[in-house]
Write a structure and sequence with these properties.
The protein is of the alpha+beta class. The chain is 33% helix and 28% strand. It has helices spanning 3-19, 40-56, 87-92, 156-161, 167-176, 186-194, 208-211, 214-220, 247-256, and strands at residues 28-33, 36-39, 61-64, 78-85, 98-105, 108-116, 121-126, 131-133, 136-137, 150-152, 179-181, 200-206, 224-226, 239-244.
Length: 260
């Protein structure tokens, strides 16, 4: 089985299980605080994905949210997996959460899949083959006027209210765009930009498993992505994210709001 075919099968099975999941009183715990949560289903889902990948591709490396990196000295490929991107949404809403799986060969993207679990909507892309939602091709927004842009951010409190070096620039951007919205899932918000439902996405904290699948989908749909300071988004380190429907829109935001 090819890696992409395996990934699609595993993601769909994981999604089906999560749609049936019910949280018992002791199924939720805190990591670093009451706004940083994990559930037994995060761990079960990641274990399921890891086992499925390594059973077919034992030489590959896996970087996931809940368990240490599994790798060999010379991995065939690296998988970035987020079993539930949007855990708080999973707990409180049982909607607006995703299973995210991306695969890279060195610095080259192979494919990315992001499943909007409750909507049963699968965003996917293979490098050089365009981006898709199911069988529908995706095209990112071509809007470039700041006043027409819809901005998504996964964490309103962290983005606009907590002290940070670029907070005033982000506040100016928020005041100038058409509106600001929040889903609470980096992967789903990047996919919203990929399909033209949003024009910008800002995340002041994101990890490789959050964005390394969706960034492939976004770029295959014609979008652009970088760190908030304009530097290339690192593959293996946490950081900030600025995504736009086009490289022109990305450059405009960076130039006009002083984040370079």
């Amino acid at each position: 089985m090819e890696r992409f075919e395996l990934a699609e099968a595993l993601v769909r099975k994981a999604g089906a299980a999560l749609r049936q999941a019910r949280l018992e009183a002791d199924a939720v715990s805190c990591k670093t605080g009451h706004q940083d949560l994990v559930t037994v289903w995060d761990r079960r889902t990641e274990q399921f994905l890891r086992q499925g990948i390594l059973s077919e591709f034992p030489s590959d490396a896996i970087v996931g949210e809940e368990y240490p990196t599994v790798s060999t000295a010379a991995p065939g490929a690296v998988w970035y997996i987020d079993p539930i991107d949007g855990t708080t949404n999973f707990i409180n809403q049982h909607s607006n959460y995703a299973v995210s799986v991306g695969c890279w060969q060195g610095d080259e993207p192979l494919f990315g899949l992001v499943l909007d679990v409750e909507a049963d909507r699968l965003y996917h892309a293979c490098a050089g083959q365009g981006a898709w939602c199911g069988k529908t091709p995706l095209a990112a927004s071509r809007r470039k006027n700041i006043s027409e842009l819809l901005l998504f951010t996964p964490d309103v409190l962290r983005t606009f209210l907590q002290p940070s070096p670029g907070r005033q620039d982000l506040l100016r951007l928020a005041q100038d765009v058409r509106a600001v919205r929040s889903i609470g899932s980096v992967a789903l918000e990047l996919c919203a930009v990929a399909c033209g439902e949003a024009d910008l996405c800002v995340a002041t904290r994101s990890c490789p498993w959050d964005h390394n699948a969706a960034r492939i989908i976004l770029q295959e749909a014609g979008g652009a992505i970088a760190s908030l300071n304009g530097a290339p988004l690192p593959l293996n380190e946490p950081g900030t994210v600025l995504a736009a429907g086009s490289s022109e829109a990305l450059d405009l935001v960076l130039k006009q709001y002083g984040m370079q």
